[in-house]
Amino acid sequence: MDQFAKKLIDWYDHHHRLLPWRHTRNIYHTWVCEVMSQQTTLAVVVPKFSEFVKHLPTVYDLATCDEEKLRELWSGLGYYARARNLRKGAQFIIEQLNNRFPQSYREWLQIPGCGPYTAAVIASICFNEKVACVDGNVVRVVSRLLGLCKDVWSSSGKSTIEDYVASMIPEERPGDFNQAMMELGATVCRKTKPNCPACPLQENCLAFANNWIDICPPKKPRREPVNVELFAILVWRKSTDKLAIVDRKNGFLSKTVGFPLLQKLEETQAKEVLKSLPNLDFFELPTKFSHAITHHRISGKVILAQEIENLNFDSWQKLGFTEPFHWFPKSDIASKLSTAFDNKAFKLFLDYQKDYEEGAGNRE
């Protein structure tokens, strides 16, 4: 093992964070935690991971888990499509691979929903395969080590970084080397306020030597956010204190479970239709909320549609809702919702109810 790798792994041995999936080498745990950690902070992931593997301790349990249970266990992690893809991968392993985990990077790429990065993490950590794992933390570390101030985020730039990492991976402990690179970026070589004095690779770092830390790597190009005004329709059956939710197949936030949604352009027409429906009282709650999803910046509002008498689904189809409504007691709704947007809308409804019951309700 060369001095670069030795210094890094020695540092990792003494300073890595104690995370639940690092206690033992477990293929299933490594896979689950890696998918959970994509675009989600570890502070959120750690308790959710422990709960997830407690209820679904094996790949078979995941493959046979029903939608409601999966949604409940994934609640709070966001990007629910990751959970569905994880289950699809588990089903592939059970049905196509006879309950046998893939044993290499190439084999893991055949698993539905498993991309190059996830395959590399599993192959290096669980099978000691010399394959580079490059996430945002590693991009930052290597950019600073090599003094890369431009052309980092392009395909050629990423290839340069991946080739560098691949060339440095030792024969011994390749998984620990990859984890050490990611850990260094997350805890020491941070985006802001990096702790350079604590870095085991400081003497190898061109950015440190040339005082380029602030410009390596360059800022990642970002897409301009798209502004969206989105209305959540909370259909409330007051007589039973139940609310309606749908499995959204199409449109905004498709393939998630939550309240029926309308975008701004549909609002005027929707309100006209709502007015035409008998036995219905509706109004827009005065408070709105903000939400962000990838490159969308959302202004969220709630239309509370209160049934005075039960309406059949044909009436709601006039609004363009094609998915059937599922009614649940208000106390169960939070566990059914799969997006933070819906949870924010539901909280507005609960706040409105509380104010109304205290005599402060105001229909504006």
Automatic annotation (TrEMBL):
Name of the protein described by the UniProt record: A/G-specific adenine glycosylase
Entry's family note: Belongs to the Nth/MutY family.
One Pfam family linked to the record: HhH-GPD
Alphabetical list of SUPFAM superfamilies matching this protein: DNA-glycosylase (SSF48150)
SMART domains the record matches: ENDO3c, FES
Cited InterPro entries: DNA_glycosylase, Endonuclease3_FeS-loop_motif, HhH-GPD_domain, HhH_base_excis_C, MIG/MutY
Domain of life the protein comes from: Bacteria
Cofactor(s), by name: [4Fe-4S] cluster
GO BP term, example: mismatch repair
Residue intervals of the HhH-GPD domain: 36-187
GO molecular function: 4 iron, 4 sulfur cluster binding; 8-oxo-7,8-dihydroguanine DNA N-glycosylase activity; adenine/guanine mispair binding; metal ion binding; oxidized purine DNA binding; purine-specific mismatch base pair DNA N-glycosylase activity
Record key words, sorted: DNA damage, DNA repair, Glycosidase, Hydrolase, Iron, Iron-sulfur, Metal-binding
